[in-house]
Write a structure and sequence with these properties.
It contains 16 helices and 18 strands. It is α/β, with parallel strands linked by helices.
């Protein structure tokens, strides 16, 4: 199919003029060719999606997720970050086989697409990253993926996740060579050192050099939890963001997840270097990490986008929930006008695309951009009679309101059903894989 016509919706563009239009959106050969007004298909092979009573908008772009963790949903509740990692998540990841990672990634891709997320920045585990790429390829998701890198000689890291520095770098280089730019550039690679505590100084400096040489992104965690920050300071003598800056892990090609606990100097450094911050409100609340001062970051000129993190710390990958939380969470401290709905929608779409280095091709509806588009029904009793589309998207809509999803000009969700994945099989495989993993861990 070369042409898709989305007919008769309210079009939220997120373009520089913040236009809200009425009429049709047309996508031909993967590219947006019409916005607003009436469109007649040119090709003989076309699909028409009716969008009356719906918002037509850019797909959500989540710039920090862990698709490999989805089998551990509900297995790591009521823990703080370091205990969460050491007691559940790292042992879980160390127990994953290739088939388990594939089942986890397919489950996550299904959830993300059905909920209107069309692009992600994903951190895998140490092993089996090819399986994540294959799942995203098969699902039709736009994905930038990296293997987690963990070479620190730390006894709390399970032996199954500890790797030699050279091995970690070699595997990352292999994955980058194989996958970066695959599927018509729908799949891309990002170097993904897990965080300062799990990586040696040598590894982080090498990542900075190699990512720059290859022209790819860097994706890591920073300043999520106060105990984490204290350990980084004890080991390096520096605040977390300043340490990452010293080893080369800041810049417009770098996305730092969380950044809950920052000094004013660190915020200034992030703005000065153009480093992206990914706000993950559900995760930060559930792990008791704190609340990132997003209005202060934005005021300082820091680029901020949104992510759901992973299923064990959320426990959902619902981008609409993250938008609602991001909009509400900061109002008690900063006032009711903080983070208005249009700003949050931009963070969830074009802001995420910028963090992935893809703002020139996705994240907004503009002529010539790739066709990453979602159709969201505004007819539910929890939305009616809201007339402001931004208000509806952020404060009222749910992921289950998503009707249709187009990625790179391909219809991957039609009438709330996946077109490329067999959902019953995905769910069956995920349940079986999860049972096997936790049986091996002795926690079945």
């Amino acid at each position: 199919m070369t042409e898709i016509l989305i007919r008769g919706g309210t079009i939220v563009t997120i373009d520089p003029a913040w236009r809200v239009l009425a009429g049709d959106v047309a996508i031909r050969d993967g590219v947006i060719v019409q916005l607003g007004g009436s469109y007649t298909p040119i090709d003989r092979d076309y699909e028409i999606l009716e969008a009356a009573g719906c918002v037509v908008m850019p797909g959500l772009v989540q710039s920090h997720v862990h698709t490999c963790q989805s089998l551990a949903r509900g297995r790591a509740d009521d823990l703080e970050l370091l205990d969460w990692l050491q007691k559940v998540v790292w042992p879980y990841e160390a127990s994953l086989g290739e088939a388990d990672v594939a089942a986890a990634a397919r489950l996550a891709c299904a959830e993300l697409l059905l909920g209107g997320t069309t692009a992600i920045l994903d951190m895998g585990t140490v092993h089996h990253t090819d399986a994540i790429f294959e799942a995203a390829r098969d699902a039709g998701l736009r994905a930038t993926i990296g293997k987690a890198m963990m070479d620190a000689d730390d006894e709390v890291i399970p032996p199954g996740l500890r790797e030699a520095t050279a091995t970690s770098l070699a595997e990352s280089a292999r994955l980058c060579s194989r996958w970066h730019g695959a599927e018509g550039d729908r799949l891309r690679y990002a170097y993904a050192p897990r965080f300062a505590l799990s990586c040696t100084d040598d590894l982080l400096r090498a990542v900075a050099r190699e990512a720059s040489a290859r022209g790819v992104r860097i994706h890591t965690h920073a300043s999520e939890n106060q105990d984490e920050i204290a350990l980084v300071k004890r080991r390096t003598g520096k605040d977390n963001v300043y340490y990452l800056h010293d080893v080369g892990l800041t810049g417009s090609h770098v996305a730092l997840a969380h950044c809950v606990w920052l000094s004013d100097r660190e915020r200034g450094l992030l703005a000065e270097t153009g480093t992206h911050v990914v706000h993950c409100p559900s995760s930060n609340l559930k792990l008791g990490s704190g609340i990132a001062a997003v209005p202060d970051l934005l005021d300082a000129g820091v680029a901020v986008s949104l992510g759901c993190d992973g299923a064990p710390c959320n426990n959902t990958m619902d981008g609409f929930l993250e938008m609602r939380l991001a909009a509400l969470l900061h109002k008690p401290r900063y006032g009711g006008a903080a983070l208005p709905a249009p700003m949050v929608v931009r963070m969830a779409t074009l802001g995420g695309a910028a963090a992935l280095g893809l703002a020139d091709r996705t994240g907004s509806l503009e002529l010539g951009k790739r066709g990453d588009v979602i159709v969201v029904d505004l007819g539910g009793p929890h939305v009616v009679p809201t007339e402001d589309p931004y208000s509806a998207i952020v404060y009222a809509c749910r992921s289950t309101d998503v009707q249709h999803v187009v990625v790179d000009g391909e219809l991957v969700v039609r009438d709330q059903a996946l077109t490329r994945l067999d959902l019953p099989a995905v769910l069956r495989d995920a349940r079986a894989a999860a049972r096997g993993v936790f049986d091996r861990m002795g926690r079945g």
